[in-house]
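User: Some background: our group keeps a shared notebook of sequences we're curious about, and every so often someone picks one and asks for a predicted structure to add to the entry. Today it's my turn. The entry only has the sequence so far, pasted here. Could you supply the structure so I can complete it?
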Amino acid sequence: AGANVICELAVLGKRSILVPLPGSSHREQEQNAKLLEKLGLAVVVEESDPLAKKILEAVEKLRFGSTFKIDNRELNRIFPRDADSLIVDEIFKILKITH
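Assistant: Of course. Here's the predicted structure to add to the notebook entry:
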């Protein structure tokens, strides 16, 4: 549940099962995973859980869960699809370049 994986999953809108590393600094992997879970894109399985059973439950939830809804508005607000254009626009503003 590292930052790069979280961003890729969010931008692609891929559902996933995430197992955050328990020893990550400041628990950032857990926070990353919980964010995608809150947005409806992930099921978080703690490393200490009986993994086989939890992963099976998570797969069933991702595949069949009628309550598993993706919050697309919030997802797009946090992970904008046009982030590259927004970054370029900001750079142009800072450099006072028109395009």
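Suggested note for the entry: The two ends are 37 Å apart (CA to CA). The first helix runs from residue 3 to 12.
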